[in-house]
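Tutorial, part two.
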Amino acid sequence: MKRLAARLSAAALALHIATAAAAPTGYLQRAEVRQFISEMVVKHGFVRKELNLLFSRAQFQPAIIKSMDRPAGTPLNSWQIYRGLFVNSQRIDEGAQFWNRHSEALQRAAAEFGVPEEIIVAIIGIETVYGRNVGTYRVIDALSTLAFDYPKRAEFFRSELESYLLFARDAEIDVFQVKGSYAGAIGIPQFMPGSYRRFAVDYDGDGRINLAMSAADAVGSIGNFLKAHGWARGEAAAYLAEVSGNNWQNLAAAGVSPLFRVADLPLFGVKLDTPLPADTPCALIVLESPGQPSEFRVGLQNFHVLTRYNRSSFYAVAVLELGAEIVRSRQQAVGKIEVKKENP
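Running the prediction step on this input gives:
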């Protein structure tokens, strides 16, 4: 019986090892992972044994791949549905409250980085509902899954995995404790690890950067990120536009980079609702909703900067519109207070 039990145990162990080697969860058994570990040892002085242990514990998350490959027919491919998800009464009301709670940090960031308070508040509102939804995936699992099991963007996510390991080492934190989005974004402003290392700042003065817990650090870090990417102080980001004919499609196909001038717009059948200097750099933004007429914006430099935070034009316009609605909500609240003072 003992010999039989021993043979069964050995067989079970062999089966476990074979399964681990074949399954995506067995990261340490994979040649590309071992190569990544060797690069981290040579390039950054990591201890191979520690990284071996780390990747033996990192877990493949198939739900992340499904989220990355969201089919084209989802609501996020309709501007009207997308807008409704983020520009709504809940996020407007909570945005006004967040602004009131953190007005000092927001005012300071606006002065230092030139980014309006409402832009920073709206980004936090869209990203995590003002810090409430920072993500449930272990960042190490998310980045390992995308770095080694998502070929479309493997190079990008391997770079982010490298940055995450460096970030965790520098901050002396447990790599398995940090939770984030399915893409590996971290904290209240949802910074990817590379952006965390480059642009996150200690804005509450406690001597450390904590984007998971400190709203002030999140506020300052967003301002720093946008300024570093070219935010132009005191300038607008986009204006409403109308189109005629079909030539506007050529302008829209050029993307969100402001490669054209306002003077060029009439040549493409685009009419601005606000006069701007003829030499203002711009791009045409198309907001499509299946079954409904498209909306159009002329995006300027600051619009392009918003797409460095998130490359979706829907996202950038939603930030602008949510921010404007939060400003309006706060102004209405002030007006009601003033009316009460006049009519006690």
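The two ends are 91 Å apart (CA to CA). In part three we will examine how such features are distributed along the chain.
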